[in-house]
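User: Hi! I'm working on a homework problem where we have to compare a predicted structure to a textbook description. Could you give me the structure for the chain below?
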Amino acid sequence: MEGLKSFILMYAGLFAITNPIGAVPVFMGVVSHLPIEKRHEVARKVSIAVLVTLITFALIGQWIFKFFGSSVDAFAIAGGILLFRMGMEMLSGKLSSVKIDEEEVTLEEVAVIPLAIPLISGPGAITTVMLYTTRENPVIVILTIIAISVTVYLILSSGNKIIEKMGRVGIKVTTRMMGLILTSMAIQMIINGIKGAFNL
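Assistant: Happy to help. Predicted structure tokens:
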């Protein structure tokens, strides 16, 4: 019973941080031109990338950062810069550099970066799972991450219906709105990284 309570609390916290619902407009803007089968494939690849990323950092995150001489704060700054660039392109209505074609390699590349990392499994999520592992049963932490990954897939996959209902104009409007939100998220991510790096 205690394990179930921990699972629910961790799931709720990680869901809020990864915010897969907030990623849907970005996902739609990137895959709107693809057939439904490909959209589901991208959603599946994103969820797998989120799963692998969070489990990896939950188990050996500390050693990864130490090995490369990096930190979560540096990751936050780099991720923020990437999201800022993407957000600016979305604001201008230009998704040429982040849109994907139907080639398998490109599908995998964009599913991992920037959709899975850092949009969903960003610095906040990585830090959270690393902290969970030090405080909770690692098995429950892994089960929580698996549940989040499945949730990501289900939510992104359902975005296909939203695309069909919104139409091309709705997608363009949503893309620009999300671009503004994404740039603000990116700036905040960079600010948090700078604060952490310089102990401000």
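For your comparison, note the following. Helices lie at 2-18, 20-31, 36-67, 72-91, 104-120, 123-135, 138-198. Confidence is low (pLDDT under 50) at residues 95-102. Good luck with the assignment!
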